[in-house]
Amino acid sequence: MKRQEFPTPAEQGHPSADCLRFTGIHKRFGSFKALDGIDLSIRKGEFLCLLGPSGCGKTTLLRILAGLETQDAGSLHMAGRDISRLPPAARDYGIVFQSYALFPNLTVAGNIAYGLRTSRQAQSRRVAELLDLVGLPGSESRFPSQLSGGQQQRVALARALATSPSLLLLDEPLSALDAQVREHLRAELRLLQQKLGVTTIMVTHDQEEALALADTIAVMRHGRIEQVGSPEQIYRQPANRFVAEFVGHANWLPVHCDDMGTLRLAGVPLASSLALPTGMAPAEATLFCRPEDVRVEPHWQPATNTLMAVVERVDFLGGLRRASLSLCAAREIVLVADVSPNDAGFSALVPGQRVPVTLPADRLRLFQGPVL
Ligand SMILES: Nc1ncnc2c1ncn2[C@@H]1O[C@H](COP(=O)(O)OP(=O)(O)OP(=O)(O)O)[C@@H](O)[C@H]1O
């Protein structure tokens, strides 16, 4: 086989071409609805993370795509081909599981070459090439038990990529590793995926991992997709409370919306430019604001969305301080601000001190109903 080089994204086709499409996927286990109508498209070369809490159906969706589980209804198309009923071996993917799933009795080379149907010489060349790629050159003759968790997962990745599949499936591949190895491998995985341009779907419940790795995140809950978007969209414009709560830290502040559409937080009117979701009745609402968006001001200056607060406590978070601030007009309302030493109000963060805080209008979102 004359396969020394990996195909570039350009060789694999136009990056925006649809590679994979799930349409109306349903799956029940007995009376339990594990997937409840999944529609999702993935572009060629895209890195998509299925993100959601335990039991939301991420792995089931991945297993259906891999042909390891059968959907009750719905279809799957890959590059325009209906693969809904094809056996796993006919679906053209490589897969990496959470537990490294290497054959313990085979060497690293034996594990990686397992699915290759080429001459021994071509296999050796391919194995060496893949080991270079995953940063383990010269490890051919070692056994899985002689490798660390991170190294075993690199071998599992090399094995998944051995046949140059169109699709790489990753089922929580980093979650069994310790934090430092995980972060290191995460960065390498992203570089590798970009270099190869292989369309990738990764299952994770780790929102930080999804934000760091994905081009697109599909947030799931109870067998449904709650939102699909770029990490920026998911983080900045969460479609609903569930997404906002699941991804990142957030302040949830009770606001009242009067008949004129004016919003008030602790009686203080907030910028009227805040967009109310269409159909929201004038009543109680919840204001959402990320801690890093709350601005602690060095001096009082009457300004839109600026309120007085008292510093309740300050926690050291390495590069940042996390301050809990209670509003002077309603001490029971506490908001959290992440403040960097470069921010103007940093030196004012002394417990007991009164400080002005601004909630930038363009960083706020409103959700219907009271704070939960
Ligand atoms: N073979 C099965 N038989 C019965 N129930 C199952 C089976 N496989 C999955 N389930 C159930 O379906 C639901 C979704 O499972 P799934 O493994 O897809 O969730 P997940 O989002 O990947 O969660 P986790 O992050 O914990 O793996 C869970 O409640 C699970 O118990």
Automatic annotation (TrEMBL):
SUPFAM superfamilies: MOP-like, P-loop containing nucleoside triphosphate hydrolases. The keyword Nucleotide-binding applies. GO terms for molecular function: ATP binding. It comes from the Bacteria. InterPro entries: AAA+_ATPase (IPR003593), ABC_SmlMolc_Importer (IPR050093), ABC_transporter-like_ATP-bd (IPR003439), ABC_transporter-like_CS (IPR017871), AminoethylPonate_ABC_PhnT2 (IPR017666), Mo/tungstate-bd_C_term_dom (IPR008995), P-loop_NTPase (IPR027417), Transp-assoc_OB_typ2 (IPR013611). Keywords: ATP-binding, Cell inner membrane, Cell membrane, Membrane, Nucleotide-binding, Translocase, Transport. Residues 20-247 form the ABC transporter domain. This is 2-aminoethylphosphonate ABC transporter ATP-binding protein.
